[in-house]
Amino acid sequence: MLTLKIISPEREVLSEKVDLVELPGSQGRFEVLRDHAPLVSSLDEGVIRYVIGNQSHEIPSQAGFVEVRNNVVTVCIG
C-alpha cells in the first residue's frame, strides 16, 4: 500500500491508503506503485487517478509537484 496525500495552500485535500496513483506529469502521465524509487516531479493541470482495491477514483487537479518517498506520495497543488 501507498499513502497518498494531496495538499493545497489552504487545506489537506486527501489522505488515503491506495494501491496505485496515476499522475499528470509535465513530461506525460505516469504511475506510482508500492516501493517506487524516490522522485520529485512537476505536474500539469489534469486528473489524478488512484485505486483502492477494485475501486478507481479521479480528482481534477491544478498544476503543482509531487514527491514520492518511502511509499508516501505527496502531491502539492496550487
Describe it for me?
- With 78 residues, the protein is an all-beta fold.
- It has a single domain (2-77), classed as ATP Synthase, domain 1 (Sandwich).
- The chain has no helices and nine strands.
- The chain has strands at 2-7, 12-18, 20-25, 28-33, 39-43, 46-52, 55-61, 64-69, 72-77.
- It has a five-stranded mixed β-sheet with strand order 2-1-9-8-5, with no helix packed on it. Strands 4-3-6-7 form a four-stranded antiparallel β-sheet, with no helix packed on it.
- A hairpin with a 4-residue loop joins strand 1 and strand 2.
- It starts with a strand and ends with a strand.
Tell me the series of helices and strands, N- to C-terminal: EEEEEEEEE
- Which fold name corresponds to the CATH topology? ATP Synthase, domain 1
Quaternary assembly: single chain
Rg (C-alpha, Å) = 11 Å
What is the CATH architecture annotation? Sandwich
Count of domains: 1
Helix/strand-derived category reads mainly beta
Low-pLDDT residue spans? none
Helix content: under 10%
**Integer average pLDDT:** 96
List the helices and strands and how they pair.
Layout: E1 2-7, E2 12-18, E3 20-25, E4 28-33, E5 39-43, E6 46-52, E7 55-61, E8 64-69, E9 72-77
Parallel strand pairs: 1-9
Antiparallel strand pairs: 1-2, 3-4, 3-6, 5-8, 6-7, 8-9
Short descriptors:
single chain; five-stranded mixed beta sheet; mainly beta
